[in-house]
Amino acid sequence: MSTSPSGLDPELPQAIWSTHEPTSDDPNVVPSGAPAAGASDANAPFSPLQSRMHQMFPTLTDNEIERMSRFGFAQHYKAGEWMFRVGETGRGMVIVLKGMVRVIRRDALGIEHIVRDHGPGNFLAEVAQLSGKPCLVDGLAVDEVDGIVIPPERLRALLVAEAELGERIMRALILRRVGLIEKGSGPVLLGQSDDARLVSLQGFLRRNGYPHTVIDACTDPDAIALLERISASTSDFPIVICPDGTVLRAPDENQVATQLGWLPEFDPEHTYDVAVVGAGPAGLATAVYAASEGLSVAVFDCRAPGGQAGASSRIENYLGFPTGISGQALAGRAFVQAQKFGAHIAIPTKIKALRCDRTPIQIELENGTLVSTKTVVIASGAAYRRPSIDGLERYEGHGTYYWASPVEAKLCKNSDVVLVGGGNSAGQAVVYLASHARHVHLLVRGSGLAASMSHYLVERIASLPNVTLRSHTEITSLDGDERAFTAINCKTPDGPLKIDSRHLFLFTGADPNTDWLRNCNVNVDGKGFVLTGPEAHEGRTLGVMALETSVPGVFAIGDVRSSSTKRVAAAVGEGAAVVAQIHGLLAKQESMPAPVR
User: Fold this and answer.
1) Quick one: which of 3, 60, 72, 307 is 20 to 30 A from 215 by CA?
2) Which CATH number describes the domain made up of 271-382+555-591?
3) Contact call for residues 174 and 18 (beta carbons, < 8 A)
């Protein structure tokens, strides 16, 4: 069966969150131990990760093991015992002191592949174990094994307390996750490649950095046999086959996340110091700074880390990355960083309402769960609005896109595409798509790009031979058949224009994600963006914090905030600044005498 691994970002092996490149060759790049059964990943085609095997699977010294031991407890495993299984709640890291542990992954057909045999001085874990998420692989004690188990909360404490050693461990955890992504581990997505629901699920898993495999039912010769094996038909598309064998038929994103064990449980008796709604650059910055300073933090997002920035193919003007960085890589680093410091992250989790009429403040989740918190940071960002185009609703999800990732780029390879928008996100998408599409038609309502787009992007676009900029141009309607549109009709100063294309990317004006604030007293401007500081308090400045809303203890940062600067760096800066203001508010609350009852 020809399976395609999950949308591994081709830049990830170089830019995956870790800041160091391989420094030397290592004789231990080949997995130790000969496979006893099944296929071995050691025989897989060359991967850029192979030059980093010494970082992915480091051997600990006796001194390092001794330092790490104080964070865990001793554990013995019998020969042939499963130490952990796919889908089970992760127990944290295991350091092998004696014996051999075989790590195994399963592919789309259930065939076992040996990832690595771990001996004394090796450790077993990947990124999921920072927060105790379900395991992505099986671990088998080949013979009698003695080890040290470090639970997730103690593992996080280790990473913080042992900075240099923690850096090596963190790099290994991340590289191992990237290796699983590259091999196509995890759930299998089966369906038609151009099905909007399949594309959405694929993007959802990719944006969350979760390993998966996609099988195109139209082109894969073994797809029919797989359908027979799971007793499914094309009416069930898209189908998700989970690692534990569970088959989900036409599921939504929340059903997939629930089955994979992503959604955490909340202690109804616990009150967080900070609840952050939104996991874009602003929200993740708040989580990192607040959690690293000892505050208890909960983070919620309805889809994936990164927000709009997470869909950017390359951000080249963010400080400290002279060669640029993809939005997903930047968000991935921040996401892992927040977990390292103990932030409780719930993705995907949709917020139903903010209950500001009580102390502590409560956030009501869509499933009815109430989460108590002393302060709230609104970082829910904005979403590209759907413009008024005749036929757009009919073809929604069938050739229409609101971001440009490798998933979409693959669908429009060697085709003509149309993109609408004049901001930086649109510019980054144009540059990225131009390397895949035959031709990119960029449509803007204004006279050009200079007023709304960074100069470096304007110059880059002007230099691309397969990009045509059409100013003073608007789309009026879409023509097509029952399945997809085939042409885009526009109006221009020179009259009607028809562009033959099946791919339309919309990066038009954004609307704030503030529906969940509807029953709260948070003041917003005429466009729905949240007011902060003096603007939220009718010009009053005394005792007013710059990022606090009209409701005490509720702050707003990033794109959702009125008059904010729509840049990643500005969002991150506000995420850091709001933590200082939260500290001040919490200190004030603690100094106040308890109410007399």
Assistant:
1) 307
2) 3.50.50.60
3) yes
CB 400 within 8 A of CB 302: no
* 246, two tokens: 């569970």
- Alpha helices per DSSP H over 293-422: 327-340, 406-411
Question: Predicted confidence band at 440 (pLDDT cuts at 50, 70, 90)?
Answer: very high
Phi, psi of 583 (to 5 degrees): -55, -45
Pairing of strands 239-241, 361-365: unpaired
* Rounded mean pLDDT, 287-313: 94
CA–CA distance, 116 with 32 (Å, rounded to integer): 7
482: Cα within 13 Å, side-chain hemisphere:
0
CB 235 within 8 A of CB 337: no
Strand order in 495-500's β-sheet?
A: 474-480, 485-492, 495-500
Average pLDDT over residues 196-218: 92
Alpha-carbon distances, residue 329 vs 74, 205, 286, 508 (angstroms): 36, 14, 18, 24
Cis peptide before 152 (omega within 30 of 0): no
The answer regarding whether domain 188-252 maps to CATH 3.40.30.10 reads yes
What phi, psi does 488 have (nearest 5°)?
-120, 120
Distance CA 483, CA 486 (A): 10
- Which H or E run contains 364? strand 361-365
What mean pLDDT value characterizes the chain? Answer: 89
> Is 44's pLDDT higher than 90?
no
CATH topology of domain 400-508: FAD/NAD(P)-binding domain (3.50.50)
Distances (CA, A) of 20 to 13, 15, 16, 52: 11, 9, 10, 10
CATH of domain 4-183: 2.60.120.10
Q: Which residue has the higher pLDDT, 582 or 25?
A: 582
List CB contacts of 341: < 8 A, sequence separation 6 or more.
Answer: 156, 160, 287, 288, 291, 292
**418: pLDDT strictly greater than 80:** yes
Q: Any idea which residue has 């759907």 for tokens? A: 386
For the question of whether the overall pTM of this predicted structure is more than 0.90, the answer is no
CA distance 179 to 177: 5
User: What is the per-residue DSSP string for 112-174?
Assistant: EEEEEEE-TT-EE--GGGGTTPBPSSEEEESS-EEEEEE-HHHHHHHHHHSHHHHHHHHHHHH
CA separation, residue 213 to residues 202, 353, 375 (Å): 9, 35, 40
Domain with CATH 3.40.30.10 in the chain: 188-252
What's the rounded Cα separation, in Å, for the pair 585 and 554? 10
Q: Where are the alpha helices (DSSP H) in 216-355?
A: 223-229, 253-259, 281-292, 327-340
H or E element in which residue 207 lies:
helix 196-207
How many C-alpha atoms does 484 have within 13 Å on its Cβ side? 13
**Sheet of 123-124, strands arranged across:** 73-77, 145-150, 93-98, 123-124
d(CA 251, CA 190): 12
What is the three-class DSSP state of 41? helix
Nearest Cα to Cα of residue 212 among 232, 172, 173, 240: 240
For residue range 170-198, what is the model confidence (pLDDT) as tens digits? 999 999 999 999 888 889 999 998 898 99
Q: How confident is the model at residue 104 (pLDDT cuts 50, 70, 90)?
A: very high
